[in-house]
Each structure stands twice: as C-alpha cells, then as structure tokens.
Amino acid sequence: MREQHKRSIAEQAKIFKALGHPSRLLMVDALRDGEKCVCELRELVGDDMSTISRHLAVLREAGVVTSKKRGTSIYYRLKLGCLNQFLQCTAAAVQQKAREHLEIVQSR
Amino acid sequence: MREQHKRSIAEQAKIFKALGHPSRLLMVDALRDGEKCVCELRELVGDDMSTISRHLAVLREAGVVTSKKRGTSIYYRLKLGCLNQFLQCTAAAVQQKAREHLEIVQSR
DNA sequence: TGGCTTTTTGGCAAAATTGCAAAATATTGA
DNA sequence: TCAATATTTTGCAATTTTGCCAAAAAGCCA
C-alpha cells in the first residue's frame, strides 16, 4: 500500500526532474501557447541541436510533452495540461522571492 | 525583455529541480496534510539523517518549504501552497500513464 | 556545567546529468 | 536514385548530484 504510493511518488518525481532544467522549462513554457517544431525550440534555447533533442526526449519520456510529425518537421505540444496553471504559481513565487530579497537588501 | 523572462524561468526551474527527487517529493507530499518534524520525515524516507537534512536544505533553498523550531525539534511545512493542487494532477497523470501502458501490454 | 538529543557540515566515492561533435536515421524532392 | 533537410543517437569528458560516515554545531535541561 505504502509501497504503491512510493512508486507513484517516484514516477511523479520524474516529471519534476524533467522540468527542473532551465532549457527544458523554457521550451515547455513556450509550448503553453501552442505547438512548436523542434527548429523553433532550438532557436529559442540556442543550444546545439543534439542537446535540444536530448532535452526533448527527457520531456517526452516523463510524459510532459508529445510530438507529432507533420510535413518535414516534428511538432511538440504540451501534454500535461495542468502545468499551465502551476507555472503561473511558480512564476509568482519567484517574483515574490525577488521582492523579499530586495526588501532585505534595502533595509540594510 | 526576453532575458528577464529567461531568468525567471531559470529560477522556476530550481523549484522543479528541488522537487525532482523521490525522497524529496515524498517528504513534500507528506507535508500536504500538515507540518512534520525532521524525525518524522526521516522515518518516512528511511535514509540516513544527514541525507534527510541535506534534502530538506534543498527544498528550503528552493522556497518549497519553511521550517520552524519548536521545543526540541524542527518542524517543516509546505510553503508553496499551489503545489498541493498540482500534485493531484501529476498523480493522475502517472496513473493514466500506467493505464495506457497496461493497454499496450494487453493488446499484444 | 556537562551530557543529551537533534540537525547540519565536511569529506569522498559512486552514479547521473550535461553538452558538444560526429555518425546514424528518416523524409522529401529533384 | 541522390542529395538535402530535420531530428535522433552515440561516444565522451566535464560537472553535478547522491548518500554515507564521522565530526561539528546547537539547543535543552538536570
């Protein structure tokens, strides 16, 4: 019972882990407003194509995104819909943290 | 402009990264129903105390949890409230994935 | 004060992640 | 069929993360 739960948590951790890299989160964030081809994502991040491809594989395996070939390119889209909402929350949290940090600095 | 956004995303990635470890996510999940002392979290995870302590430091630095000393122990609680809702989503996603995988296996 | 109990740190070795470059795979058109 | 385009896979070296042990802090109280 508890073991089953631990397994589920471990699986969920993979999702978070996949999202826990700047380049990958940047791509995922970009996918919030619709699918994009690998080439667009590559341009967004700016890394080597092979690096982008690897990152996308991580996201795919974690179930965060899905891909579909259309014409000459492969298009990626967000699969984990609820992420959209949570990203608003993390963005707000980061902003809040920045504000707090600013306060500390100013109060010196 | 875009650089500012990239920085924000990188900061948010730290939150995901902190959550992207089975032991850490297990502890965070346990905190959903109220604060717990380090000793309780240690028992839950089962690792060495020093390992637990380090994991908690990661979560603290990412702003996912906060701690407060009371009596002889230190109590941790969830700081990133919206996580509660998102964890429901990831749990559902993992379940769904398991179902899909089962289907594939059965259809052979 | 001195001795507990709880938590954090330092030091390390093993394991995992990252990113680039080169090679391998499709696909598409000419 | 060949060449060109788009993407993935491999091989590797550098870096980071993990987790344990021992030792150091820190706080509490008899």
Give a topology summary.
2 copies of one chain form a homodimer.
Chain A: H1 2-19, H2 22-30, E1 36-37, H3 38-45, H4 49-61, E2 65-70, E3 73-78, H5 83-106
Chain A binds a DNA duplex (30 and 30 nucleotides) through residues 21, 37-39, 47-57, 69, 71-74.
Any overview of this molecule?
The structure is a homodimer of 108-residue chains. Chain A is α+β, with helices and mostly antiparallel strands and 108 residues long. Chain A has one domain (2-80): Orthogonal Bundle (Arc Repressor Mutant, subunit A). In chain A, 67% of the residues lie in helices and 13% in strands. Chain A has helices at residues 2-19, 22-30, 38-45, 49-61, 83-106, and strands at 36-37, 65-70, 73-78. A three-stranded antiparallel β-sheet of chain A has the order 1-3-2. The first copy, chain A, is globular. The termini of chain A are far apart. The structure holds a DNA duplex (30 and 30 nucleotides).
